[in-house]
Write a structure and sequence with these properties.
With about 260 residues, this protein is α+β, with helices and mostly antiparallel strands. Helices cover about 20% and strands about 45% of the residues. It contains 5 helices and 19 strands. The chain has a 19-stranded mixed sheet that branches. β14 and β15 form a beta hairpin. The radius of gyration is 18 Å and the shape is globular.
Amino acid sequence: MKLAITTIDAFTTKAFSGNPAAICLVDQELSVVQMQSIAMEMNLSETAFVKRNTETDSFSLRWFTPTVEIDLCGHATLASAFWMEKSGWAKSGETIRFQTRSGDLLVKSDGEWIEMDFPLISTFEKEHPFFGNEFFGTKITRTAKLKGNWIFELEDADAVETCEPDFALVKNHSEEGIIITAPGKNSFDIYSRYFGPNIGIDEDPVTGFAHCALMDYWYKGSGKSNLKAFQASKRGGEIHLEKRDDRVIIRGQAVKVLSGEIEF
């Protein structure tokens, strides 16, 4: 079997930055084993599979890391919508309805930007049982918990940028991963990074789902419902956030970097 596959860099306008995702627009059913094997072969933080649902005028969307299928992924959703429009699977400006493990997600383009309607992820303050006041030599000022993950607020954006975690310790002391964050700099409201060794990603370059939680976390702390966010990984990425009740509007851009076929 041959399958067209494309790599898109999401949350950026420059190749080799942002977060890369492999996108497969498929007409035939693939098994979970096949999808997981393709994701393992691509070895990116996410490989997404989009299939048209003709009966419901929607699309099924599934996301796989190199090791597991996940419930929610922002950058691969953005990349999927971007490539669907470029490939003629969707028209510019129309709303795309994705059916996912996290419910229906609505996505549409607005000029050069893509706008995603995602669920707000609730967070609550809780002390971490292992990382109390310090995270690899950096002071923790506040901690919060969300499903499967933790948020550690550090003193400033520089601390987020320079943090060097031991991924074995992160893996042993988290269910999925840990988000570190701080007030931003250089016109950004917040900075963050995400470490997810338990889902096969030591550090994710730019993480949409994490910002669904960060929007809740920072709104509770500051009352701001609009945030300009920067994920300070080596690749880096820009995300614009808007809280609307129990939803988060996530805006980002994308660029194509590679296309070809995978044979199996």
